[in-house]
Design goal:
Blueprint (H helix, E strand, L loop, with lengths): L21 H4 L5 H4 L6 E11 L11 E8 L4 E2 L2 E3 L6 H13 L13 E7 L4 E9 L2 H10 L10 E6 L12 H4 L8 H11 L5 H11 L10
Length: 222
Amino acid sequence: MSVEPDLSDLPLPKIPACLQLRSVTKGLMQYSEAMKFENYRHAAHVCLWAPQEGSSRFGQLRAAVMMQLRFDGTFGFPGGLMNKGEDVVTGLNREVSEEIGWDSTAHPITLKDYFSTQVIDGRNLVLHFFIKQLTLEQFSAVEKGCPLSKDYGDEVMGSVRVPLYTMANMYNGLPAFINNKFVGSAKQQLLLALHHVKLFTEEEINEVILKSQNLKLSSKQF
């Protein structure tokens, strides 16, 4: 029988030097400590990904990573706020089911997929982030089911695969993608997830950030 981890013993996540930003590090704490905060709302989101070998005519694929276009025009990860009295894992599976048609009985998100917890004091909010690996077949099936989900066309405008390559002009692809508008710290969570599952080294993430600041192609700064 699979045993759930004791989150009170888990260390804080490793943060690459290039992501040692206030938006990433402020409020990071162990799950067990964050659960002691009374009168705080809890929200949880998940990065779903699957290894994908080969390349397209645009670059090396590496993996399929899902994000979604939200109702407010920003990109984020599936998930949302917990209902009153609802535990984090149950609430996350419910939210993901509503947003992308996730089958939590076949592929439940569990504490084994947990990555980090961040407390946002000014908003009385606790944010939990999970990273869930699927097979490419499972990932594709989730994508196909997204338009049939409860929240499709309302809270969620559609799912997208993140382009993990950098094209010949050294900007299009992932550097250009991270210059989109993201909700909260979803951009940083994306890069943390890519590092955590060893799709990108710290040096590669730093290169992507630097290329995203190419002022000839984009006026935005990371």
